[in-house]
Specification:
- With 526 residues, the chain is an alpha+beta fold.
- Helices cover 28% and strands 28% of the residues.
- It has 13 helices and 21 strands.
- It has helices at 26-37, 52-60, 86-93, 97-106, 172-180, 195-202, 217-225, 253-265, 373-397, 414-425, 428-440, 486-497, 501-506, and strands at 8-11, 40-49, 73-80, 107-113, 121-126, 138-139, 144-150, 153-159, 230-235, 270-276, 281-290, 302-304, 311-316, 320-329, 335-339, 355-365, 405-413, 448-456, 460-468, 478-483, 520-522.
- The strands form 4 sheets. The chain has a 6-stranded antiparallel β-barrel with strand order 10-11-13-14-15-16, surrounded by 4 helices. A 6-stranded mixed beta sheet has the order 12-17-18-19-20-21, with helices on both faces.
- Helix 3 (86-93) packs across helix 4 and helix 6 crosses helix 7 (217-225).
Length: 526
């Protein structure tokens, strides 16, 4: 490995460009094509870079090898458009705002190259392709902003870190866990562990951690727990016979989509344990999905808002970051993921798509989130079904066309619900009134909320039910309801004030009175 103090500048298609010197692997081929599709035109290389993750790997493993590994990496930065010159970097380093803005606008991310011949691809963060369908946007809430500093020039890129497994310190599950724990969902109280720390924390007493031979499901959960986070595991529910029974049961398509969407919308990446067709067990990480309005149901029906999502975006240490997979149904209705690159990319279509079968979903939530997406789903489905049933009866009595209802569960920080969620759906005096009402009229709420959103006809909001996430899944108390629709608000207000409420509830078996929102907040002009 060449080490010098000078920055190196290459055109992306130059033979001297650092990625061209790597061994031919699927990851290298994928990254080169991915960067080409981002219209990357040049690279700037820091030849001497100390990477936290690799330094920890070096300390616990590579420093003890007789192969004389060094502890210095190279970091390669990628820019779209015309090649970046030394003069442009000099101007930016001198404080020239035009040069700084040009570099930031063209910045596509970075790759850390480790001095490990069999696994050189270290911490990698690359921007996503431009979103060409804003009407059905990518949901990438787990992504976070990474900052890179070159000669005092601060550049940033939004994404989720990926790296190649080296099998010495980290196998597939460790790398997927490492990606998960980079999520935007975590705050300053949770430092991001290195792959070496994850592998060490997952090992049971009496078993050597290195070289890593992979992690069991129990070890994955233990590693999450030791990061002061709450591991939530969701098992498959399909009746189809699984190809590898030892991994458990497969998922039905709807349940897989619902759970993935609920966690990703909440900012939590999802580690998926499963297997590729013709292969053994493997772990990947889902960091995003493509939003989609559910297929139309019968008038008056209630469906999950995310049951029909088509695409997820995965990090696979054996293949690369941000790979688009389509969620499909197998012959017996089981969920399977099929690699499906966008048609508009220059990359050649795969001769044989990769097919992955999921068996378990794992999320690392905050410790005060004590309920699962399934439990929030069940609670939300019961109460929204109750509301929908009565609303349909009222509509039919008045000869009003029945809408199609949708609902979706998610977890969200209380402060983010106040700021981002309400700030997106409301504005002006209504926004201020709702925020003050939540602050002053509702009992103190938990740091994280369970939000069940009820909508109609795909684009009309009816209400948000705000649940306590700190109680048991069997209980899940309801704090309040934020009601966006005037007719829904009047109906609920009259129901809760009705002297016959107890009598009404006696005839309904799916919910009890405690599940009703006893306090309503109108989110419209009155």
């Amino acid at each position: 490995m060449r080490i010098s103090g000078n920055l190196e500048f290459y055109g992306f298609r130059d033979q001297e460009q650092p990625l061209n010197y790597l061994s031919e692997t699927p990851q290298k081929q994928y990254l080169i094509q991915y960067l080409a599709d981002l219209d990357v035109g040049s690279t700037v290389v820091e030849p001497s870079y100390f990477d936290k993750d690799y330094l920890d790997e070096f300390s616990v493993y590579y420093s003890r090898s007789s192969q004389c590994y060094v502890n210095i990496c190279r970091r390669v930065h990628f820019f779209s458009g015309e090649p970046v010159s030394r003069e442009q970097v000099r101007l930016a380093a001198s404080g020239d705002l035009n040069a700084l803005e040009s570099l930031q606008d063209r910045y596509c991310g970075f790759i850390v190259l480790r001095p490990i011949p069999i696994a050189p691809l270290g911490r990698t963060v690359l921007k996503l392709y431009p979103d060409r369908t804003p009407g059905q946007p990518r949901i990438t809430t787990p992504s976070r902003r990474y900052k890179a500093n070159i000669t005092g020039i601060e550049l940033s890129v939004d994404g989720l870190a990926w790296q190649q497994q080296d099998t010495g310190v980290a196998a597939c599950a460790t790398v997927s866990l490492w990606t998960m724990l980079h999520s935007s969902a975590y705050d300053e109280h949770h430092s991001i562990p290195t792959t070496a720390q994850i592998t060490q924390s997952a090992q049971s007493f009496g078993r050597r951690p290195f070289p890593s031979t992979g992690l069991t499901l129990e070890q994955i959960l233990e590693a999450i727990h030791k990061q002061n986070l709450n591991p939530i595991a969701v098992s498959g529910d399909s009746l189809a016979n699984p190809p590898i029974p030892a991994l458990g049961r497969l998922f039905s398509k709807d349940r897989f989509a619902n759970n993935v969407a609920a966690f990703v919308r909440s900012g939590y990446p999802v580690l998926v344990v499963g297997h590729y067709e013709g292969s053994s067990g493997h772990a990947i990480c889902i960091g995003g999905f493509r939003d989609r309005t559910p297929d139309g149901g019968a008038p008056g029906s209630l469906t999950m808002a995310d049951k029909d999502i088509d695409y997820v975006y995965i990090h696979d240490d054996n293949k690369g970051p941000n790979i688009r997979f389509k969620i499909e149904s197998g012959e017996q209705g089981q969920a399977k993921l099929v690699s499906s690159p966008p048609e508009y990319l220059e990359s050649e279509q795969e001769e044989a798509p990769h097919v992955f079968y999921p068996y378990s979903l794992i999320a690392a939530t905050h410790q005060d989130v004590r309920i699962s997406a399934d439990e929030l789903y069940e609670k939300g489905f019961r109460i929204t079904s109750f509301f929908v049933g009565i609303m349909n009866a009222i509509f039919q009595h008045n000869n009003i066309e029945l809408p199609q209802y949708t609902f979706s569960p998610r977890f969200i920080l209380l402060r983010d619900y106040f700021s981002k969620e309400l700030g997106t759906t409301l504005s002006g005096d209504v926004l201020g009134a709702v925020r003050l009402a939540l602050q002053e009229k509702v009992p103190p709420m938990s740091l994280h909320l369970g939000v069940v959103r009820l909508g109609a006809n795909g684009d009309s909001l009816l209400m948000d039910l705000l649940y306590d996430t700190t109680d048991s899944g069997r209980n899940i108390p309801l704090f309040t309801a934020v009601v966006y629709d005037p007719a829904m608000y009047e109906y609920l207000r009259n129901l809760l004030l009705s002297p016959e409420l107890d009598q009404i509830m006696q005839g309904i078996s799916i919910i009890d009175k405690s599940e009703l929102p006893m306090h309503l907040i109108p989110a419209f002009e009155r």
